[in-house]
Design goal:
By secondary structure, the chain is of the alpha+beta class. The protein has ten helices and 17 strands. Strands 1, 2, 3, 4, 5 and 6 form a six-stranded antiparallel sheet that branches.
Length: 505
Amino acid sequence: MALLHLLKSLIKNHIIIYLLVTLLPAASISFYLTQQKVKIMETAEEGKAQEIANSYAANIETFLGETVGRLEMLATSIKVEKNNLEDLNDILLETAGKDSRFSGFYWANTDGDLLISTNTMTEPVNIGKRPYFQQAVKTKETSFSSPHLGSVTGRHIISIATPIVENGQVKGVLIASLRLTKIEEKVRNLVKNEAVKVIDNTGQTLIKTGPVSGRDTTKARTSVNQVPWTITVYKNSNLTQNFWLAFFTYLFVLLAIFNTLYLLFKIILLRRNLKKEQQETELQKLELIGKLAASTAHEIRNPLTGIKGLVKLLSEEYRDEKAQAYFNVIQTEIDRINSIVSELLVLGKPTAYHLKTYNANEIVSEIKPIIQSEANYMNVEFNTQYSPEPIFISCVKDQLKQVILNLSKNSLQAMSHGGKLSIQLAKESELCVIRVIDNGKGMTDEQIAQAFNPFFTLKKDGSGLGLTICKRIIETYGGEIFLKSAPNQGTEVKITIPAALEITM
């Protein structure tokens, strides 16, 4: 039960972390990006709605302009011909029958009395007090009335008054009744998916098409120049639908990106943890091997000392050549065992040492004769390149000598038919860098990967502890050791140790 509870807790924590690092950021960024996109879309929709509203206003203005043009042409013909009332009545009747937009024509004197009407009047009508009539007489220009019910026809109309002016004096006023339904018909013919509302300056609704409200509508407003009307357009913009479409599109893309990054992060984290676990495992193995090696070495050395002494006594007792050959073989193998035991003791020693500061150039110079003699014996060209300036490092001198001698010995053994061996010292970024370079038979990538593992060796009589001991010694100084090699091209071993500031005695 405890294990099941722990498993559930881990799954829950994993889900929470996943939501926090993928879904929540993706949703937040998607929401922000969608808002920005919708704002752009709203601006575009507002622009489109304004264009539509302007087009309605332009069409109404064009219609009114054509109407005024016809009326003014009619007024000009009346003025030129100077018709009497009977002839004028005939002209107005003939014109009314040809243009359906007009519901009637009237002729009024300057006092506002309607003298002629194309519609039947049951009683006299005077329009002298009406604002549009007074404005036409006063300005001597065509004027429009507000929409109203005609006193003669009873229809919704707009009255248009055009004064007849001769010698600067108004002789009469030509009045036309424009059917409001004709303007509405004109507007409705232009309507597509939008709704339109036209109101006058008093707030009265003159034209209304379709529903004029909705959640996803964009509103635009404009005015008509010739009459005090306001046109409002309501365009269906589908902003809610577009919002969610854009949001889920962004969310899908960002989730893909964040999931990829999350997986990469998990892979990197897993690799890092795996590497850390491998390092801890290696340290535990080395620690275990060290303890086992130390205890085993002591146990081996005691009987080994006795065997060595007895072999020496026997070699003194039996002097024949064959026996001496056997004793030499036994002595050689005992020395080899003793060498392996010594390496085991080094591997098993505690890592706490009393470090002192030395010049790395001097340490290498002290062991140079030993390496030179071995190189001469194996027909290998040997050279040493010292740093032009002293490089001080904190170390145990004999241990560092052992490391360089071990690496040089490995290089010499890799060049059984001669070659070149080089030891180079340099100071790089507050580090002492020691390179041991040969042009021997080299190693493969698989061999490099196992080179520092205990008991891995490419030699027939090797213990496989040399590089392991070298690595452990260098790491106790806070340094690192690297291998670079290729088959038949040689090997380079690079040692880096933090440089010290001054020599300690």
